[in-house]
Design a protein that fits this description.
Chain B: InterPro entries: Helicase_HTH (IPR029491), YpbB-like (IPR008308). Chain B: One of its GO terms (molecular function) is helicase activity. The complex is a heterodimer of chains A (about 500) and B (about 350). Chain A is about 40% helix and about 15% strand. With about 500 residues, chain A is an alpha/beta fold. Chain A is globular, with a radius of gyration of 24 Å. By secondary structure, chain B is an all-alpha fold. In chain B, strand 1 and strand 2 form a beta hairpin. The chains are: A alpha/beta (about 500), B mainly alpha (about 350). At the A-B interface, helix 4, helix 11 and helix 19 of A face helix 7, helix 9 and helix 11 of B.
């Protein structure tokens, strides 16, 4: 059967999107593959389709629990029942149940921390794994913007599973990061599929604004003029909340805030409201967007500067999936780069914190090489945030040589944080360079990823003469008729289908 | 936050200066401590136990400050307040919703809402013949529950939506005090995503604390109604099935109870569980509160029980220290047991 026939049979599509066919063909040839495909191009199809050809199991490592759940739900809705997610959402009993019948699942999603459990590795070793997939593979690289120490052990794990055929997927990785991925996974021969990351229908526009207040005013103005729906990204929950309130109360837009501090129920509802066009504007932190498949997002505005070009590209990439003209706007005020620097510093344990920790008598008990007591009390007393503490835990739980002294271990940690901070600051610096550049912004980003412009894009960016007015909505804002639906009508419409001729 | 203020005022009056203001905070949060559980019974505040599980200490302090600023309460000792006459007037003007039943339902309210919202979403999508949608509830237990219930419901897929609609309308009609919009706009169905609690509060122009209270109130009303008259609501009654199965003991007290039923003494239980005797005593107070027919004679002589009760009534106080001063031979544990048994 041709690949296209399989595509139609299992997914109902008639043609592959960019890069998909190349990846799948490489895998069917038995070649380890590194695929860099732009966001929203159906990366998951690259392992799902081979799943229907390969005899064994498909193991997918995915770093984000919520994303994993979305993918599993989505596959189930499309009729694939042999799919399971092994992560910390499962209760102990559920985990047992799943592990007992693990070989009945074709597609096994697993979080990297689960792979640290020897018992689970043993279970996996008893299966025949046809394909080992690493989603968001850039998390492997220490120089990637989203390094996860758990991910750096994937090479060993792959080895312990007898080096299965491997697919590493990422949307954004610089050349260095790509090299890191290959090395860290211990892949000898690798086929690289790198489709262009350019999204020609998205225009770039950077605007310098005097201060915070003016920025607020400018966002209100832009939201007024641009066609909707759209997303405004913030680095702070508070600022996002304030803007959402301004938009709903002052301007009467259907707007909501979205950030990790909301309860799960609310997060699901707001995401779904947006997808169902019940909201015009989402004011969000970077927590929003993963797994949101919405075609008609017309603008993405950045109120604050992102921490790196990679995440900027990912966030603006949510616009214009339908191929229609869309605009990415970044508002910059002098000194804005200080906020990401502060955030970067806050994500890492400080030297003082580490000094304090290593001086605690209730910490430095080492019976064997795993003798560190990492209690919650220590976390709280030392003022470690969740992110900081995770780094400490991850680094100390690595096998440490018996001979290394406490001092050496501490220095190892401090050395690590120093390097991470340097990498992060460098990323921020590159982002700032992009804001400051006098030349084509699209060109800059493509060069950052060693990509090349294939066809000329017009309109391209403010440096190439893009006029923001061309993106303004043609029609005036439609008078929002607040048609008050009574609760009874609301309920009736939910539960009785009047158009149904019974 | 008029409604929440009313509740705090009411609690203050019931407490009669015998507890600090934070005992109200713990009550509203539903703190699983013997002290709070006992307070809820002693002072007849069970209705409000655990109805504000999301209340923060900061929120609470702010509200107390506001009550003070409005001269509805006045300080009468460290962390102690009493209601002023304005406060009493305020309470009369702003009565508390009457269907709240925190003690009985606080542990099942969230589950009930999860079941209801998923049932409506599934029924709505069935009605519109839509199979591709994201369930609004992620909890697998709720999904499992729904699967079973759908099989057991004696209704065709075609009629389910309409029948549920009729039952909901009939249920709301049983209580004219209720405003169903508090609940209905939260519901999700075919091509219509429900509002979050904050959005619903904004739509109805309520502050979030009052909104929450009305939301809980209507859920508690439904839980009671469906429990009492399931025959009137053949479909909705499934929401109530096996909802209440767990008793209200904390997990730790549960274990103590198991050992107790095996005939162990309190000391042995403390040894087995490697807990302090005082902790086991706390559990016993909790058990006494939860099981009406639990006998405390083994721990307090009937004569002593009578004396403690007598003194408590005489000095019109439930403060342990005051009682202890009068009944020197009784231990604090014994006084608490007696108050738990007969006080609430």
């Amino acid at each position: 059967m041709e690949l296209e026939d399989l595509l139609n049979k299992y997914f109902g599509y008639t043609a592959f999107k960019t890069g998909q066919k190349e990846v799948i063909s490489a895998l069917l040839n038995g070649e380890n593959t590194l695929a860099m495909l732009p966001t929203g191009t159906g990366k998951s199809l690259c392992y799902q389709l081979p799943g229907y050809i390969f005899k064994g199991h498909i193991l997918i490592i995915s770093p984000l629990l919520s994303l994993m759940q979305d993918q599993v739900d989505q596959m189930k809705r499309f009729g694939e029942k042999r799919v399971v997610a092994l992560n910390s959402f499962l209760t102990h009993i559920e985990k047992e149940q799943v592990l007992n019948v693990l070989n009945q699942y074709k597609f096994i999603f697993i979080s990297p921390e689960m792979l640290q459990v020897p018992y689970i590795i043993k279970k996996l070793q008893s299966l025949s794994i046809s394909l080992f997939v690493i989603d968001e593979a850039h998390c492997i690289s220490q120089w990637g913007y989203d390094f996860r120490p758990d991910y750096s052990k994937l090479g060993e794990i792959r080895k312990s599973l007898c080096n299965p055929l491997t697919l590493a997927l990422t949307a954004t990785a610089t050349v260095n990061v790509r090299q890191d991925i290959i090395q860290s996974l211990g892949l000898s021969k690798v086929t690289k599929v790198e489709s262009t990351i350019d999204r020609p229908n998205i225009g770039f526009y950077v605007e310098e604004i005097a201060d915070y207040r003016d920025k607020e005013r400018r966002v209100l103005e832009l939201v007024d003029r641009l066609p909707k729906p759209g997303i405004v990204y913030f680095s702070s929950k508070k600022a996002a909340e304030q803007m959402a309130e301004l938009l709903s109360y002052q301007q009467n837009y259907r707007s909501s805030v979205y950030h990790g501090g909301l309860e799960q129920d609310s997060r699901i509802l707001i995401q779904q409201q947006f997808i169902h066009n019940q909201l015009d504007v989402i004011c969000a932190t970077s927590a929003f967007g993963m797994g949101v498949n919405k075609e008609n997002i017309r603008f993405v505005i950045h109120f604050h500067m992102p921490m790196q070009i990679e995440s900027y590209l990912q966030e603006i990439g949510r616009a214009g999936r339908d191929g229609n003209p869309s605009i990415a706007i970044l508002l910059y005020s002098p000194g804005d780069e200080l906020l990401p620097i502060q955030l970067a510093e806050a994500e890492l344990p400080s030297d003082q914190q580490l000094d304090w920790l290593f001086n605690r008598t209730d910490f430095a008990i080492r019976t064997n090489n795993r003798g560190f007591k990492l209690t919650n009390t220590l976390k709280e007393l030392g003022g470690f945030s969740d992110v900081q503490w995770r780094i400490v835990e991850d680094l100390l739980n690595r096998p440490i040589q018996d001979t290394s002294s406490l001092q050496q271990i501490k220095e190892m940690l401090q050395d690590f944080t120093k390097k991470r901070l340097k990498a992060k600051k460098n990323n921020i610096f590159r982002m700032k360079q992009w804001i400051d550049t006098k030349f084509c912004r699209r060109q800059f980003i493509l060069e950052y990823f060693n990509d090349r412009l294939i066809t000329e894009v017009n309109p391209c960016c403010d440096r190439c003469g893009l006029d923001i007015r061309n993106y303004h909505s043609a029609e005036d804002r439609p008078q929002v008729e607040l048609l008050e639906v009574t609760w009874m009508d609301y309920l009736r419409k939910l539960l009785t289908n009047s158009e149904l001729s019974k | 936050m008029v409604q929440l203020e009313s509740i705090i005022l009411y609690c203050l009056m019931q407490l009669n200066n015998e507890r600090t203001i934070y005992s109200i905070y713990h009550l509203l949060k539903g703190k699983k401590s013997s002290q709070t559980i006992q307070d809820a019974h002693l002072f007849n505040l069970k209705k409000y136990f655990g109805i504000y599980d999301f209340l923060s200490r900061e929120n609470f302090d702010q509200i107390i400050q506001m009550l003070q600023d409005q001269k509805l309460i006045q300080s009468c000792g460290l962390q102690q307040f009493r209601s002023t006459s304005e406060g009493e007037l305020f309470l009369i003007k702003n009565p508390i919703p009457i269907d709240l039943n925190g003690w009985e339902f606080h542990q099942v309210t969230a589950r009930f809402w999860a079941r209801l919202s998923l049932l409506i979403q599934v029924a709505s999508n069935l009605e519109y013949k839509e199979t591709n949608y994201i369930p609004i509830q992620k909890d697998k237990d709720i999904h499992l529950w729904l699967k079973t219930v759908l099989k057991e419901m004696n209704v065709s897929k075609k009629d389910m939506g309409g029948k549920l609609y009729d039952e909901l309308i009939a249920c709301f009609a049983e209580n004219s005090e209720l405003d169903p919009s508090v609940l209905v706009y939260r519901l999700t169905g075919f091509n219509q995503i429900g509002l979050t609690s904050l959005q619903a509060a904004q739509k109805l122009k309520m502050d979030i604390f009052d909104y929450h209270l009305h939301f809980i109130n209507i859920l508690h009303f439904m839980i009671r109604k469906l429990g009492q008259e399931p025959e009137l609501f053949p479909l909705l009654a499934h929401l109530h099935r096996a909802l209440m199965q767990q008793n209200d003991l904390t997990q730790s007290s549960q274990k103590t109870w198991q050992l107790l039923t095996l005939g162990h003494s309190l000391e042995t239980i403390a040894q087995i569980r490697q807990l302090k005797l005082s902790t086991i005593e706390d559990h016993l107070v909790e058990i006494t509160l939860n099981f009406k027919d639990f006998s405390i004679n083994e721990y307090v002589e009937p004569i002593l029980q009578k004396e403690i009760l007598h003194v408590s009534k005489l000095i019109a106080s439930k403060q342990l220290k005051l009682i202890k001063d009068q009944v020197k031979q009784a231990s604090y544990f014994q006084i608490r047991l007696v108050l738990a048994k007969y006080g609430g």
